[in-house]
Amino acid sequence: MSSDTGMSANGNASQSSSKPALAKQTHIRGTITDYSDNTLKVETKDGQTVKVGVDDKTKVAGLKKAEASDIGKGDFVGIASIPGKGGGSDAVEVLIFPAAMKGAGEGSYSWDLTDDSSMTNATVANAVKNVDGRKVTLTYNGGQEKTISIPKDTPIVTIAKATRDDLKKGNKVFVSASGMNGNDTASMIMVGNNGVAPPM
Prior knowledge:
Number of helices: 0
Distance between the termini: 9 Å
Radius of gyration: 17 Å
Low-confidence stretches: 1-19
Oligomer: single chain
Strand content: over 45%
Order of helices and strands: EEEEEEEEEEEEE
Strand order of the largest sheet: 5-6-10-9-8
């Protein structure tokens, strides 16, 4: 998923003597404990509280539940997947992008949801329903393809409206941030303002 939407793969910038260090990209997943004074506090699943800055450039988007049947040919999706037990790839979450965001972060790359997960942002070339759920074939970067199975219990979401007023205590968030020396600023905050925990 794209860096503009806060859903890009983590990248550790290389550093050389001739170039300044670049800000490190990071993802934060958890529950809001406080939002005040341009600082968002998030409790992660391991019980730690992480602080991240919010500035004028920080984008906020909501999420709402979607269904596998909403995925159609020509749609642009972001799917986090892991290697399937029988080969291939199994989805662990699906984000259906609105048409205006088609092409955002296109490609397939490593992802930090699990140790062996990858993220594929691509156009649906084919979607086939089967007994175990649904299987989609995705195309990206000028014709590369990847087929991913979507089990029935896979969380599927799409973008919804949200504002900073939705950054309330108890809401679940996915935050894409960057910074140096532990001073991270959010570029994008995905907030579960419709009772949906961001699955990415």
